[in-house]
Amino acid sequence: MKVLVINCGSSSLKYQLIDMSNEKSLAQGLVERIGIEGSILTQKVEGRDKYIIETPMKDHKDAIKLVLGALVDEKNGVIKDMSEISAVGHRVVHGGEKYAESVLITEKVMKELDECAKLAPLHNPPNIIGIEACQALMPNTPMVAVFDTAFHQTMPEEAYIYALPYELYEKHGIRKYGFHGTSHKYVSRVAAETMGKNIEDLKIVTCHLGNGASLCAVKNGKSVETSMGFTPLAGLVMGTRCGDIDPAIATYLETDLGMSAKEVNNLMNKQSGVFGISGVSSDFRDIENAAAEGSKRAQLALDVFHHRVKEFIGAYAAAMGGVDCVVFTAGLGENAKETREEICKGLEFLGFKIDTEKNNVRGKVAEISTDDSKVKVYVIPTNEELMIARDTMSLIK
């Protein structure tokens, strides 16, 4: 059985075809600049040169048609025809409270996804467009929606309710939802397997650190707390997102500095975070280079980021009544040894120590704590696509 995983952005599309008999990725690719001049598809297959197609794509339907063509291409493809694709798994950012698990896509589901779009206006609409495009091109192939928010639906009420008038939750669904759920779910399970323990017996803090970043407290296999909130703006300092701040700053910017609501939203989402502090870049590599060259603001941006992650790890250990394992994942978590080391500094009282030599690792499953560390610390590359494919396969079976 082969599952095609689709992840649609507003002008991009990531995809991966996975053979579920051995969970091997047959091909993965990225379509960029959909509906914009310079549209391009890049497909990678192990052991081959990249397959690149530069051609105009007016919408996601054009893009998906191109993806399917690339997968069956006589010279560069990996399957003979589309009938080899048993199902399509779609990443959907927001499922609201309706979906605590992945679901087979029906007309009713599509209607409810559209209703959830107001909760994730930047993310859900392109997800829906991708599903509709696939349905048009593959009408007889089962489709599954896998939600970023689903894993966090196990949070207790005291963790997700905001201290606002309760009617705002009842009538408008204003509450903490959390995101990156597929990633947190995947790496927490790999951590348990690596430790040789049942996940239902563990307290794990998973750190998904990239341009977008979030932490999750996973107790007995379930999400009980997470750092992102009603939107992916909350929580940690990120590449261009401010994370948690005094909410009165938003009204101050409007009333005292004359900014519009749209300008404030843009400032907090696209001009803040480590980019806003450093004035250098939203890319941590650029900031680290600038700090090494003596930029005080770049160093401050890194210090603020490390401090905030450290705060959340401590808070989540308290929320769970202890911690057995800490996991670093995503682009920064998997590859930046200095980041991991700085975050763990000062947390020895919780029972873990980093082994500097073991920590010199990138992009592979590795324990980086010392042999006598009471709490295990791991680097675990995330694989959201595989998690989506697994959910898709289990549903269509």
CATH architecture of the largest domain: 2-Layer Sandwich
Number of strands: 14
| Strand order, largest beta sheet | 5-4-3-2-1-6-8-7
Low-confidence stretches: none
Helix content: 25-40%
CATH topology category name of the largest domain: Nucleotidyltransferase, domain 5
User: Superfamily at the CATH H level of the largest domain?
Assistant: ATPase, nucleotide binding domain
The N- and C-terminal alpha carbons lie at a distance of 10 Å
Task: Give the percentage of residues in beta strands.
Answer: 15-25%
Query: How many domains, as an integer?
Result: 2
- Classified by CATH, the class of the largest domain is Alpha Beta
Summarize the biggest pleated sheet. 8 strands, mixed
Radius of gyration: 21 Å
- What is the chain-wise order of helices and strands? EEEEEHEEHHEHHHEEEHHHHHEHHEEH
Helix tally equals 14
Q: Would you tell me the overall average pLDDT?
A: 93
Binding site for substrate: 91
Subcellular location: Cytoplasm
GO molecular function, one term: acetate kinase activity
InterPro entries: Ac/propionate_kinase, Aliphatic_acid_kin_short-chain, Aliphatic_acid_kinase_CS, ATPase_NBD
